[in-house]
Every structure is written in C-alpha cells, then in structure tokens.
C-alpha cells in the first residue's frame, strides 16, 4: 500500500493517526514461527542476504508478515539515506567481486509500521487501529535492529494539548522526511494509493528514469557530468524528458554510474517525443532501465522540467513503470493550511522561538526554514571561522529582493545569553563611539541569527580577546572582484598567480568563492601590525597590475574595472569585513561562499563550475570536509612588502 501526496494540507480530525515518513528502502519482513526471516523489497528484490543483521531478530513463536522500512542511521542516531545508498554500493561491488564483507560500520534498522499477517491469517481487511494494536503487542527484543515507527492519533494529541503541526515540527527536528497521515478505519490495499494514506513531505523528491548522460567538463573531465532524466506522463503513460541533474554525486558515484551506463548504451533517445536540442546537447543515450531519485525545488508547468535538482541515488527497489512525472497543474483539493507563525526548537542547550519558517527568502522559493536548516547543518565547519570574530550581518527581513541592511550592533531584543564584544567604532560615521558586536560562536547563536533573516555573515581578519580587545590580524585576504565582461574564470587565473607568489613568500594559500561573482584568496599569518597586511596585499596587487595591466587593476575606481579583475587589497584594513566561509549570499539562488581546492581553481573554465548552492555545500562538506580547516594551523610570518 502506498501513500498519496496530501497537496500540502496535513489532515486533522479524530479519524486520523500520524506516523513519521521514513527515508529508506520499503521492505516486507516475513518471519516464520521458528524465527526464520526473509526480507523482500516492494518489487520483489531479496534483501535477506544484504541485511543479515535484521534476520533472526524476532522469534515470537508465531508466523507474521511486517511492512516497514530499512533505514541507515548516522552517529547522531538520525536516519541518513545517503549512508544507506553508500552501503548498498559497497554491497553490490562485493557481490560482483564475489567477496564476502561485513557492513557493520553502517548501522541499519527495520522500522515496522504495519502488520499484514499473523498466525497464518491475513489482516489486510482489518482496520488500521486493529492492525496497529496487534503490532504493538509483538515483542521487540532488540529495538536497535527492529522496532516500531512511532504513531500517535489526533485524539491523543488533543488530550495532551498538542496539534498535528507539533508532531510535524518534532519530526523535522529529529531528521525525518515528513509525516504520513493514516485513516484509523482504513484497510490495507496492496499496490494502491488511496486517500486513506496521505504523505506530507518536508522536501520534494522525484523518482526518475535514467535515460542518458553527459561527460563531465573541466574539473570532471573523464567522468560523468550529469544525468538526463525521464518519467512517464501521468495521463498518456509515455516516457518524457523531465530535465537533468549534475549535483549531489560523490566522485565514486560518478565513476560507478559511468561504468554502469556505458554498458547500457543505445544510439537514440528513448523518449516518446524528441527533447529540444539545446536541452540534450552532447547526450549519450542509454536503455531506460535504471531508476533513481532526485531532490528538486520546482517543476515548471510549461516545459515540464525539474529545476534545482540534486542526486539522491539509485532506487533498485523501484520499477521504471512506477516512475510518474509530476503534473503540470496543481492537484485539485482544499487550500493548504497556513503553517504556525512561531515554533519552539532546541538548539544545543538553548530553546529558541523561531518564526515564519515558511516565508520565502530567495526568489527560487528557498524559505527561512531552509536557511535555518542550512546554518544548523553547516555549523560544525562554519563556527570555527566565526569564533572570536565580531560579526556584521546583512539582514533581509523581507527576503532577497526586499529591503536589506547592514547590522553591526547586536539588535534590541537579542537574547541575554548572546556573547558580545564592545569595541570602539572604526567607521567614519561612528568614530568616537562604541559598537556591541555579536559573537556567533555556538549553534544557538547561529540559529538565532538565521531566524533574524541574517542571510550574510561578514567578519574581519582579526579576533577579539581576552576581554573587549582587538588582537592583531591572523588572516590575509585578497578579494578578487570581476569587472564587467569578466567572471570568476578570470579571477581563477589571477588566483593561480597569487598561489605561486604566496607560496614563494612562505605562506599557505586557501581559496573560496565569494558566493556571488568573485572569489577570495586567504593565508594564515603572524604579525603584530594591524596595517602590515594591507601594505603587503597592496604591493602584490600593484605588482600584478603592472605585469598584466590588461587583466588586473589594483585601483578601486569602477571606471577602471571593465574587462579586468580588481584585486581589493583594502579588505585587510581593520575596519573592513569579508564574507565568512560558508555564509549564504543574498542572490537569486541560495548560493554560499564556498572553500574550493586549488585543483578546482585551476580547472575552472566556466563561471558555473564554481557556483555552489546551500545543498551543494552540505554535500561537499560531507564528502570533502572543511577545505579551510587548517588555515589557523598554517599561519606563518607575514613578509614585508
């Protein structure tokens, strides 16, 4: 039995019960009276050998059939679909190589949510309440391996003074994919999507048929660059083109997919209608036999294309015939219920009240809730770069496109636990006064800032402490700003030269995108002079301008910038700030200032090669870690200009 989308309206009323929506492999667990266990996927794949730790766990002395989901859990105990996909990839390789190998490094669990047979008797025609009651009576001796999906009825919520929205926010906080609302009177209908099971997801995902691929370019030369996707038209059943996906892959996934797709090559596209030539340039077509899943932000109604896609992995538990394209028009039904304006969440050791999480912050629909989610997940690598540095916010209370403003002083109403640094004002308009800068050095402070729509975080090249005292600069920065007619590609060529010069001077250079048009090159330094970094950076910038005046300018005048890269050496002035690593930017899409490797800098030939959205950054960090992590450990004496 399958769940049907709820159209954005989470159902309420005494007839409903709610379960967490899981992100794993749907599975039937068949347990014989002697405890012998067989695991099968929705489309008949035998999972028994792949997940041996889940067999023999239940020994109830009664034959039964459970419906549920196999999930993988990270170290924090939260469900992680990416871990499950990675584990499956290793399992498939071990089978091909005919090698046995344990996969105990990835913790898997079977989460049961329905009971279909008991003691040889079918329970399909029993109501949900009856099946659930029988399920809850079953002994679960090893809950770390096999346990129940939490469920609660609307009536129980009401008795506790709660609402379905409270369950929804709890599910979000615990890392689940959404909620399933189930009619308590509903029978179990295999293979159907009736109105009695309704899913309310937090993210939009789509199953896709892999129909082709494009070779990678620049940094991905020699590997798979993107996949061309198809799905069946919901009205005609024809296989139609619905877009492509080029992000979300690990390097290993790109290699594995390419090897697999090369064995499925065909000469022509498999679609019922030929896609526009510009959409499928350089395509290499394959037999449409593989099913995958992507995350996406929008489905265009006219062209029928998925936009802002990110790869989630192959779905070998799904058949290609089951892959149906989203409809071009909204599904009929009641209007969605408005989300609550305020919710309370736990961030570290603090409880915070967040508001208007469904409010779009970016033109592409990225919401404040997604901003908070991004900053919460990127916190482990972002916070070390903010630690001890007074933060200047750029706030967008009405989202990108609305009014924006810089904010240095901690605003009125800031929580009393927020750490601040009272420092003399260095700006001309505030000379002689003081500014109470916020110090964003833990998760609660970061979530608080995100809730204020502080999309951009800017920091100086120095820290404070002990006490309200500015310390000497510990970072050197070259801000590379492309003038009209140039892009980050030209910035990369300048950055390559900076790499060589800084290395010759005994410094270790690091690069990151600005998250907008340009990039920055950094180095950790030791100096006692607040003015020395600007002097050194200016000397290097002017040298580059003399050597290649057709490409570089060291002067700020905008009239001198067209066709050139401006090296802004003044960012080292103690009064100046630069966008922090991993900070979002207030642009059309939720791009972020992203550390990049020098191989990526050298390989960059198109501006889009170094454009990273919030989703991309989280995936990069999961794969590559923090490429800026060692900047504090590689500090070296600043040379004289």
UniProtKB/TrEMBL annotation:
A GO molecular function for this record? ligase activity
List cofactor names only: Mn(2+)
- The EC number(s) attached to this protein equal 6.5.1.1
Catalyses which reaction(s): ATP + (deoxyribonucleotide)n-3'-hydroxyl + 5'-phospho-(deoxyribonucleotide)m = (deoxyribonucleotide)n+m + AMP + diphosphate
Pfam families per record: DNA_ligase_A_C, DNA_ligase_A_M, LigD_Prim-Pol
Note the CDD domains from the entry.
Adenylation_DNA_ligase_LigD_LigC, MtLigD_Pol_like, OBF_DNA_ligase_LigD
Q: Superkingdom of the source?
A: Bacteria
What NCBIfam families is this protein classified in?
ligD_pol, NHEJ_ligase_lig, NHEJ_ligase_prk
- This protein is called DNA ligase (ATP)
Which source organism?
Amycolatopsis dongchuanensis
List the taxonomic lineage: Bacteria, Bacillati, Actinomycetota, Actinomycetes, Pseudonocardiales
State which gene encodes it. Answer: ligD_2
């Amino acid at each position: 039995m399958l769940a049907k989308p709820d159209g954005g309206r989470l159902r309420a009323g005494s007839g409903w019960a709610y379960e967490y929506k899981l992100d794993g492999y749907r599975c039937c667990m068949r347990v014989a009276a002697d405890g012998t266990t067989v695991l099968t996927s929705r489309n008949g794949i035998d999972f028994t050998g792949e997940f041996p730790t889940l067999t023999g766990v239940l020994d109830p002395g009664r034959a039964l059939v459970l419906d549920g989901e196999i999930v993988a859990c990270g170290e924090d105990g939260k469900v992680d679909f990416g871990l499950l996909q990675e584990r499956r990839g290793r399992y498939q390789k071990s089978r091909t190589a005919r090698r046995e190998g344990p996969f105990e490094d990835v913790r898997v669990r079977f989460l049961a949510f329905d009971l279909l047979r008991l003691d040889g008797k079918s329970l399909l025609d029993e109501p949900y309440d009856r099946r659930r009651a029988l399920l809850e009576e079953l002994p679960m001796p090893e809950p770390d391996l096999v346990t129940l999906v939490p469920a609660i009825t609307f009536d129980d919520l009401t008795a506790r003074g709660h609402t379905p929205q409270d369950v929804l926010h709890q599910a979000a906080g615990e890392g689940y994919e959404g909620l399933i609302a189930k009619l308590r009177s509903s029978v179990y209908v295999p293979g159907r999507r009736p109105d009695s099971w309704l899913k309310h997801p937090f993210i939009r995902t789509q199953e896709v048929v892999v129909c082709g691929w494009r070779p990678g370019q620049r940094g991905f030369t020699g590997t798979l660059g993107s996949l061309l996707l198809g799905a069946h038209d919901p009205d005609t059943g024809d296989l139609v083109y619905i877009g492509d996906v080029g992000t979300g892959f690990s390097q290993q996934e790109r290699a594995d997919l390419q090897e697999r797709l090369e064995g499925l090559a065909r000469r022509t596209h498999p679609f019922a209608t030929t896609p526009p030539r510009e959409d499928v340039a350089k395509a290499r077509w394959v037999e449409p036999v593989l099913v995958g899943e992507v995350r996406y932000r929008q489905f265009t109604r006219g062209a029928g294309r998925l936009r802002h896609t990110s790869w989630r992995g192959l779905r070998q538990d799904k058949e290609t015939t089951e892959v149906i394209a989203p409809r071009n028009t909204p599904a009929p039904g009641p209007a969605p219920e408005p989300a609550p304006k305020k919710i309370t969440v736990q961030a570290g050791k603090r409880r915070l009240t967040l508001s208007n999480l469904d409010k779009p912050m970016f033109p592409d629909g990225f919401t404040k809730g997604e901003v908070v989610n991004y900053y919460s997940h990127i916190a482990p690598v972002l916070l070390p770069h903010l630690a001890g540095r007074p933060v200047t916010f750029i706030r967008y209370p009405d989202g990108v496109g609305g009014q924006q403003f810089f904010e240095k002083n901690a605003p009125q109403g800031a929580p009393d636990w927020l750490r601040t640094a009272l420092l003399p004002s260095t700006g001309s308009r505030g000379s002689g006064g003081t500014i109470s800068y916020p110090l964003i050095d833990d998760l609660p402070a970061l979530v608080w800032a995100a809730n204020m729509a502080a999309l951009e975080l800017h920091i100086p090249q120095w820290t404070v402490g002990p006490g309200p005292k500015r310390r000497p600069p510990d970072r050197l920065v070259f801000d590379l700003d492309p003038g009209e007619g140039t892009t980050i590609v030209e910035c990369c060529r300048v950055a390559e030269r900076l790499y060589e010069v800084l290395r010759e001077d005994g410094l270790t250079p690091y690069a990151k995108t600005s998250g907008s048009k340009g990039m920055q090159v950094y180095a950790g330094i030791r100096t006692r002079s607040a003015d020395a970094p600007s002097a050194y950076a200016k000397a290097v910038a002017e040298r580059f301008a003399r050597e290649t005046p057709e490409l570089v300018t060291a002067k700020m005048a905008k009239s001198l910038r067209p066709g050139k890269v401006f090296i802004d050496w003044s960012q080292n002035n103690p009064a100046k700030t630069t966008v922090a690593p991993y900070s979002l930017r207030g642009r059309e899409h939720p791009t972020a200032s992203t550390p990049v490797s020098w191989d990526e800098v050298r390989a960059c030939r198109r501006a889009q090669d170094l454009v990273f959205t919030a989703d991309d950054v989280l995936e990069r960090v999961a794969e590559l870690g923090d490429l800026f992590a060692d900047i504090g450990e590689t500090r070296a004496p600043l040379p004289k200009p």
